[in-house]
Amino acid sequence: MTMPNQTAPIPKFAKRLNGLSNVRLPLWALPADWPQQAGEPVNADIFFNQGLIASLKPRSSQHSDLWDLQGALALPALIEPHAHLDKTFTLTRSRPAAPGLLAAIEAMHQDRQYWTAEDLRQRAAKGLTWAAANGVTHLRTHIDWFAATPPLAWLEMNNLQQPGITLERVALAPLGLFADADNANAIAQAVAQSGEHSLLGGFIHSSNWDPAAMSNLLHSATRWQLNLDLHIDEELSPLANGLMWLADYLSQHPFPGHICCSHGCALASGSEQQSRQVLEVLAKHRVTLISLPMTNLLLQDAVVGRTPRQRGITLIKEARTAGIPVLIGCDNVQDAFCPAGSYDPLDTLTCMLFTAQLDSVFDQHSRLICDLSALTGKLAAVSPLATGSPASLVIFPGSDSVTWPLNSAARLVINRGRLTHQRTWKQELSHES
Ligand SMILES: [Zn+2]
User: What positions does the domain Amidohydrolase occupy (predicted)?
Assistant: First the structure.
């Protein structure tokens, strides 16, 4: 086993750092002409200025004013592209009566009786605190809507403050709510008037399929200039046609905003030719695909006493080949949909590593938990470590590039040039002993 690196003495919290030296960064985040040695990128020196990155250079001689990381791995700030802060941490009071997605939805509806402002605030704040400690600086939460007016959770989440985390809210309404054009317009208007970081979403499934409602959803988002994040085709049926319909729609009606499609499990159930055609159109329209491996593995093909035969994971490799940006998220954490979860993107990536048989995880696929431009649709031709970007990184002092993200619970979080969280090997060992 590789022993943890010993980083130099840890700087004081809140102290503004001048930068980091001798740090091992992932290949995808480095310039194309970055020098390599023995097949690995050489370590870097990163200079900070006023909380921003001033420059990124291959390691040179000693810089006494920088924090020497002695070769430790580091990533740009992590993102959590898909969570449900309104449902999180409700498992102990609301367990589903049966396996699978629809039983979890029923259990969640039962749990709503407890969703007071205080209950929502307390659970959501806990989720945000966990995410921040893990190195997340941007979190997108979906929030269930049950009518055309905003639910209490939508309003409460707007008041949540977690230093260092940008919070986005997506209105997650069942497709049926968009069947009426006036309703669809009212939902979109309410979201648009909720301020920045607000998006329109919907739950689109063969159990509620309605192409007219889909048209209303797309039209209302266009009218109110909203970006979309859809729960779409979260099932294994080859008859699920949400993504296929969306590809067809976009071919005829270019959408002015950005669209994220979450789940898309059914893509893996159709024919290769069918999925390729859908992916080609989605790529053309800059749609981002978000895969949620933990809940999909738990909820798809779930039957009591029977080993699941299917994985429920969308076609992330084919999507990347087609040029579609891909991200992975935690989805539900400790609720009726998923009893486990940690708000740690590394746990999600570990799950995906085995599920989708990923290789070169640190140098290539760590991008799946860092790529903010893929989430927002804002074109970023440059790396998140480019000059002028926030000096926000996560350092993994106990890891190496071969075994990461396993054995990587220990970490140090730098947010805009300041050390904000630390979880060291030493602390973990004393905790366990
Ligand atoms: Zn979800």
Answer: 207-400
